[in-house]
Amino acid sequence: MLSLAELTAYFKAREIGFEIQFFSGEFFALSFDKDFDASSIADLGGTIKIGEVKAKFPTETVKEAFLKKNKQAQKQIIESLASSGLVDGMAKSSEKILFGVSVYCTENTLRALSGGIQRFVGSTVKDELADLGKKSKFMGFSNDRKLAQLSHVEVLKKNLVENKAEVLFCIGRTETWVATTIAVHNPFEFQKRDIYKPNQRKIFGMPPRLARIMVNLSSCMPGKVLLDPFCGVGTILQEALLERAMVVGMDVNPWCVKAASENLEWLVREYGLEDADFRVLQGDVNKLVEKIGQETMDCIVCEPDLGPALRQVPTGPYAEKIVLKLEPLYSGFVEQAYRALKPGGRLVLVTPYIKTRAGQAVTMPISEKLGNLGFKRVYVFSKDMFAQSAGGLDRLVGASSLVEMDERHMIGREIHIVEK
Q1: Is pTM, for the whole model, over 0.85?
Q2: 14-59 pLDDT, tens per residue?
Q3: What CA–CA distances, in Å, run from 145 to 28, 114, 115, 142?
């Protein structure tokens, strides 16, 4: 739920009124108090597509139509799509229309049928366009594709956003939403900031998308001052600088200080960031306040040392040994971070999340230390964010941290968000 957490933090920081109608691992459905600026997707690290809802009907109708092959239910879906205005944007094109359909399915019973649902919706849209005198071509998939979904790269390359030509068919537990894609994540920009910056640190690097998520979790806004005291080559700093924040980096390694400075200079040139404000210092985090002063930072976002690169899944005792060795670094740092933050300032901190052979996770026991210093835990989800019909809130509301774990890695990230 890291992506949803980013959205809630982003909206709250900008005082954008919203309500979460539905959430799952496949998609979220949200409503807003006023028109939402879809170009905001460029500010987000965890959102792949944004769609504008055109129709909604009970998921039970979808089950009747595709599980039970009920002709009347199929007719209801066709009529709903026809009356939704779904094809109006596509029909404005004077040329032959290329469109696609992506199916996002929460219901296990329907997931195996998503290819058939995609073809059904595609045929319906094609017929609607034909009724308007428009020739069209439906983007189909090869049989070996696991999910009946267009990738963000396909949507970008085929100009489907500009032509309002991707249909999102999103099947929830009780409701199904049909939407037109109005914005899509651009992976090429994140890739550029990842592999084309002058200096890289591949083994210890954080992906720019995750860095952007963490910056948003910190409630970073234009004009705020953000610090990364373990800045490495400056990935977190560059994402904050793109948010028009003033950024301060620090690292004990002189090479990292030089590399981060060069990367930020490259970013400023590449993105034309006029009046960009940044500095990168060399120093030990145990002397952080000596370097940057007391109560000078609005946000601190960082990933300290997570331990050694592991070749195999560790035993529980070895994982605990890794965490024990790192504890003094974290303990000393959070003391300095508390002093460096302004009152109300926010710390977003990554600690190691280590998978073990027993299937358990070994984590850093940092919560008590944070509380003793005076930090208050930030809970990114609260009941008032959700519609009554959303359901399944127990695993979100009150969650004290967020976990980012790649299946290939043995050490993941536990993300803590606290305020002074």
Answers
A1: yes
A2: 999 999 999 999 999 999 998 889 999 999 999 999 999 999 999 9
A3: 23, 11, 9, 6
Residue type, 186: N
Closest CA to 186 of 40, 360, 18: 40
Matching residue, tokens 């460096």? 340
Asked if 212 and 182 count as a contact pair (C-beta separation under 8 A), the reply is no
Cβ–Cβ < 8 Å for 52, 164:
no
CA distance 411 to 246: 31
Q: 398 by DSSP, 3-state: which?
A: coil
pLDDT in tens, 128-173: 999 999 999 998 777 778 889 999 999 999 999 999 999 999 999 9
Tokens of 341: 């933050």
In the numeric block, which tokens belong to residue 368?
């008590």
Strand order in the sheet with 97-105: 49-58, 175-184, 166-171, 97-105, 136-138
Return the domain boundaries, the chain.
Answer: 2-185, 188-419
Confirm if 418 and 408 have CB atoms less than 8 A apart: no
AA letter at 177: W
CA dihedral 45, 51, 56, 61 (to 10 degrees): -70
Q: Which residue has the tokens 């989800």?
A: 381
CATH assignment of 188-419, among 3.90.550.10, 3.90.850.10, 2.60.120.260, 3.40.50.150: 3.40.50.150
The continuous run of DSSP H or E covering 55 comes out as: strand 49-58
**Cβ-proximal residues to 20 (8 Å cutoff; 6+ apart), any chain:** 4, 8, 28, 29, 30, 385, 386, 387, 390
Q: In degrees rounded to 5, what are phi and psi of residue 419?
A: -125, 150
Q: How distant, in Å, are the alpha carbons of 17, 143, 355 from that of 32?
A: 6, 38, 39
Question: Which region, left, alpha or beta, applies to residue 321 given φ > 0 means left and ψ of -120 to 50 means alpha?
Answer: alpha
Tokens standing for residue 339: 């002093």
Spatial distance between the Cα atoms of 169 and 65, rounded to a whole number of angstroms: 14
Q: Which CATH class is domain 2-185?
A: alpha beta
